[in-house]
Amino acid sequence: MAVRTLKVDEDILNANDKLADALRSRFDASQVFVMNLMSSPGAGKTSVILRIIEALSSKYKIGVIEGDIASDVDARKIAKSDVDVVQINTSGACHLDANMILAAAETIGLDGRQLLIIENVGNLVCPAEFRLGENVKVMILSIPEGHDKPLKYPLMFTESSALILNKIDLLPHTDFDMDELRKTVTAMNPGIRIFPVSAKTGEGVGGFVGWLEEKMTGA
Amino acid sequence: MAVRTLKVDEDILNANDKLADALRSRFDASQVFVMNLMSSPGAGKTSVILRIIEALSSKYKIGVIEGDIASDVDARKIAKSDVDVVQINTSGACHLDANMILAAAETIGLDGRQLLIIENVGNLVCPAEFRLGENVKVMILSIPEGHDKPLKYPLMFTESSALILNKIDLLPHTDFDMDELRKTVTAMNPGIRIFPVSAKTGEGVGGFVGWLEEKMTGA
Predict the structure, then answer these.
(1) Most buried by CB count within 10 Å: which residue of A47, A157, A184, A201?
(2) Segment B149-158 mean pLDDT
(3) Average pLDDT of the residues of chain A
(4) Total structural domains in chain A?
(5) pLDDT recorded at residue A9
């Protein structure tokens, strides 16, 4: 059948890429490692971040930038820990862009900071197109979303260095096929690391945190 | 903190609205009732559609338009039933627009059709901004996504006539607060109808199907 393809606005993407390059230089100069965390709504980004803070906040100075269309629900959860947090409200925009991060990085401050975690807007599509000057893109797929998602939303799975499979505590109650998921994802992105975790129980979190620390320290 | 707001492209939205009006006239002329079904990835749009088909396909001539960025996974599931299905691949675009529906409606055919179900791209943000000439917008929130989603993604909850709360079979395994969800959603959209269902077990599906049939027949 006839399919019309909406053109991605090349000008917007090019402008964002330039700004992302400048941001990356700035992050490198401050020696801060930046992780851009992406997923669908409700996959568990904030819960995973709270687990990372629990594991690493005694060793490193961490900051979190929270991206949401509206509300500061997540920022208030993070603020209960001892790390700095800044909320971005995008007023309808479906993803964060480098310009928003520039403003937020100024506010949170980079001096002496070692890890900056950016929680993107909950969206399995648009955030994957916009670089934020990050060192690594990490995505979460939660078990109840189903193992067929890589086929339907390929870009984020291709762009990410690590895939966290969250909510494995719900595995017994779903028909999620872990082997099928691994096969599909590694065919699309052979270098991706896959970490099954439960942010709720803590299971598997250590594996991901170990990987993140290796990336941070270049080990 | 300083927040930059990306401008919604008014020209794109205006052009879509005009086309959506034309589509609606065309649907009305053919006396076909059109439902635009939206949700996050993996909330259960296809499973709910299969339940609607099971309940109504002996009484009405149904067609389904499947919107996905890539793949025809969902269309193949629908094609196992006895209804007509057309797949749209958006090649990266994060939502369906009226122009895509125009092409798909031509292909599937409107003559004698009584119900056309449009499964939008899995995305809790962008699809809510684009009218497709539909009679009703219906959205799904699945229990594992959490009860805080209306605060964070308000537009779709405001735009929808009905909210299907899917995967209630997982309620015992989550901390989903049904009262909190109802309170938040009805404060934003007092007229919205809320239907807790499990597309997996069939529980609660009848209530939604009854509402849909009322809307279709103007009862």
Answers:
(1) A157
(2) 96
(3) 93
(4) 1
(5) 60
| Residues of chain A contacting B109 with CB distance shorter than 8 Å | none
From B129, which residue of chain A is nearest by alpha-carbon distance?
A92
Q: In terms of residue numbers, what domain contains B131?
A: 19-210
Minimum CA–CA partner of A96 in chain B: B6
pLDDT interval class at B12 (50, 70, 90): confident
Contacts of A153 in chain B (CB under 8 A): 41, 69-70, 122
Does residue B1 sit within a domain? no
Average pLDDT score over residue span B153-180 = 97
A21 lies in a domain?
no
**Higher per-residue pLDDT: B14 or B216:** B216
pLDDT of residue B1: 34
Question: At B73, phi and psi to the nearest 5?
Answer: -55, -50
Give this prediction's pTM.
0.92
Q: Return the number of other C-beta atoms located less than 10 Å from residue A198's C-beta.
A: 20
Residues 10-49 of B with CB under 8 A from A: 40-42
Question: Using CB atoms, which residue from A40, A71, A121 is nearest to B42?
Answer: A40
**Residue B12 within any structural domain of the chain:** no
Q: Is residue A80 part of a domain?
A: yes
Q: How many CB pairs under 8 A join A and B?
A: 163
Residue A148: burial class (beta carbons within 10 Å; 0-12, 13-18, 19+): buried
Q: What is the pLDDT of residues A82-93, one digit of tens each?
A: 899 999 999 889
Does any CB of chain B come closer than 8 Å to the CB of residue A119? no
Mean pLDDT of A130-134: 97
Residue whose pair of structure tokens reads 């803590």 in the numeric block: A202
